[in-house]
Design a protein that fits this description.
By secondary structure, the chain is mainly alpha-helical. It has 6 helices and 4 strands.
């Protein structure tokens, strides 16, 4: 995130205090899957897929429920830290000025994987991965919502500008050219 005002110009990371919990989530999700398969062997086909077309009853053991609650607690803590960080940053930005401009972004497009398989100049395949996990952990859209709500209390609005018309990332500030 880039901030520019009369007082300061900064490049900031969104939610720097958020830890990456993907590894812990992965371990807990694997644990839940093992417990689900052990408790409900009749609900799965021979190849390991879930049976469809039949009304299934799922048995949840006490340890399964405890693991589910542990996963929920990890996600809840991360969501609280994320929201608190967004609130602090929004307050800081509002203290710098009352006219706030934001480029429109397609976050859904940034999350999705690349459709075509491409190779780089060395002949290796480029990764199809994009920014899905980092966008879900940093939640930039949530930040804009919080900022907009805080601005409405001050009777101002968040001004969205078209990214394609402004081309801020292509602008050369030194030579004043695109």
């Amino acid at each position: 995130m880039a901030i520019s005002s009369k007082k300061e110009v900064k490049l900031l990371e969104l939610c720097p205090e958020i830890e990456n919990i993907e590894h812990e989530k992965l371990i807990l999700l694997r644990k839940l899957d093992r417990k689900r398969r052990n408790n409900n062997p009749n609900n799965f086909n021979e190849n390991g897929t879930i049976k469809y077309g039949v009304k299934l009853t799922w048995i949840k053991s006490k340890k399964y429920v405890r693991t589910q609650n542990e996963l929920r607690e990890i996600q809840r803590k991360q969501a609280c830290k994320r929201k608190q960080s967004h609130e602090k940053l929004a307050n800081r930005i509002i203290s710098l000025g009352n006219r706030i401009l934001v480029e429109t972004m397609n976050y859904k497009g940034l999350q999705s994987r690349a459709k075509e398989i491409t190779k780089n100049k060395n002949g290796k395949y480029n990764k199809k991965k994009r920014f899905g996990k980092s966008l879900s952990s940093k939640a930039p859209s949530m930040f804009l919502t919080i900022l907009d709500n805080k601005l409405k209390w001050n009777n101002t609005e968040l001004t969205k500008i078209n990214t394609y018309k402004v081309r801020a990332s292509q602008y050369n500030h030194i030579e004043d050219k695109l």
